[in-house]
Design brief:
mainly alpha; MetI-like fold; 11 helices; globular
C-alpha cells in the first residue's frame, strides 16, 4: 500500500509539473490562435516563428551571450575551484560561503546592482550597455554555479595524484592539465551546461543590463506577451524545451557511461 501511495504521489507531482508544458506543446500545433480550443493540426506557427526577424535576432543574441558567458565562467570557475580546494579548512569555508552569496541573493538585487555599476562606469567611460554588459552580468551569476559543480569532484579526487605527477617530473601547470583536469572534467561539463541553461533563460538580470540596443529572447517574449500571447511563443517555447531536454539527457548518458567505465576500471 505504501509503495502504491508513493507511485501515486510521484505521478501527481509529474502531472503537476509537466501538464502546463504539455498543453503549451499541444497548442503550438493548433491551427487557430485559440488557447483553449483545438481546431486542427498545423506547422504554420513554426514557419512564422523562423521568418520573424525580431525573434531570430533575439535568439542569436541569446545564444551568443549564453555561449560566451558559459565558456568564460567555466574557465573562471574551474580555476577558482582549484584555488579554493588548495586552501585551508577555514579559508575554504569562507570562500565557499562567499561563492554562495550570488546564488542566494535575489536576482532583482543582482540585476539592479549591476545596472547601477554599469551606469556608473558608462557615464565616465562613454560606453552604452549592450553585449558587453550582458556577458559580464551573466558571467557574474554563472561562475558560482560552475564552482559548486566542480568542488565535489575535487573531494572525490585522490589528493596524492598531484604530488605523484610532480614527483614524476610535471610542473604545476602540467599536473593540472594532465592529472587534475581529466579527473574533474565531468564536473566542468556539468558546470558549463548549468551556466548555459541559466544564461539561456535569464530574464531579470538581462532586463536591467541589456540597454536599449540589444534584447535577449526572454525579454522579447515578455514584450510580446504584454500585448497578446501569440502561438509563435508556444512554438518557440516547445523548441527550447526540447533542446534543453536533449542536453540534459545527453549529459546524464555521458555521466552514466563514465561512471560505468570507472567502476569497471576499479574492478
Amino acid at each position: 500500500m505504501k509503495k502504491l501511495l508513493k507511485y501515486i504521489y510521484l505521478a501527481l507531482m509529474i502531472v503537476f509539473l509537466y501538464a502546463p508544458i504539455f498543453v503549451l506543446i499541444v497548442f503550438s500545433f493548433n491551427s487557430t490562435k485559440s488557447h483553449s480550443v483545438l481546431s486542427g493540426f498545423t506547422l504554420k506557427w513554426y514557419t512564422e516563428l523562423f521568418s520573424d526577424r525580431v525573434i531570430m535576432s533575439s535568439l542569436l543574441t541569446t545564444i551568443i551571450v549564453a555561449v560566451s558567458a558559459s565558456v568564460i565562467s567555466t574557465i573562471l570557475g574551474t580555476f577558482a575551484a582549484y584555488g579554493i580546494n588548495s586552501m585551508s579548512k577555514i579559508s575554504k569555508t569562507v570562500a565557499l560561503n562567499t561563492n554562495n552569496i550570488p546564488i542566494i541573493n535575489p536576482e532583482i538585487v543582482t540585476g539592479v546592482s549591476l545596472m547601477l555599476l554599469f551606469v556608473f562606469f558608462a557615464a565616465r567611460m562613454h560606453f552604452k550597455m549592450g553585449y558587453i554588459t550582458l556577458i559580464i552580468a551573466h558571467i557574474t551569476f554563472d561562475t558560482p554555479y560552475v564552482v559548486l559543480n566542480i568542488m565535489p569532484k575535487f573531494r572525490q579526487m585522490d589528493k596524492n595524484l598531484v604530488d605523484a605527477a610532480e614527483d614524476l617530473g610535471c610542473n604545476g601547470i602540467q599536473a593540472f592539465f594532465k592529472v587534475v583536469l581529466p579527473d574533474i572534467f565531468p564536473g566542468v561539463i556539468s558546470g558549463f551546461l548549468m551556466a548555459f541553461t541559466f544564461s539561456l533563460d535569464d530574464f531579470i538580470v538581462s532586463y536591467f543590463v541589456s540597454g536599449t540596443s540589444v534584447q535577449t529572447l526572454p525579454i522579447t517574449i515578455y514584450s510580446m506577451t504584454r500585448k497578446q500571447v501569440s502561438p509563435k511563443i508556444n512554438a518557440l517555447s516547445t523548441i527550447i524545451f526540447i533542446v534543453v531536454l536533449i542536453v540534459l539527457v545527453t549529459k546524464n548518458v555521458i555521466e552514466n557511461n563514465r561512471d560505468k567505465k570507472l567502476k569497471l576500471n576499479n574492478e
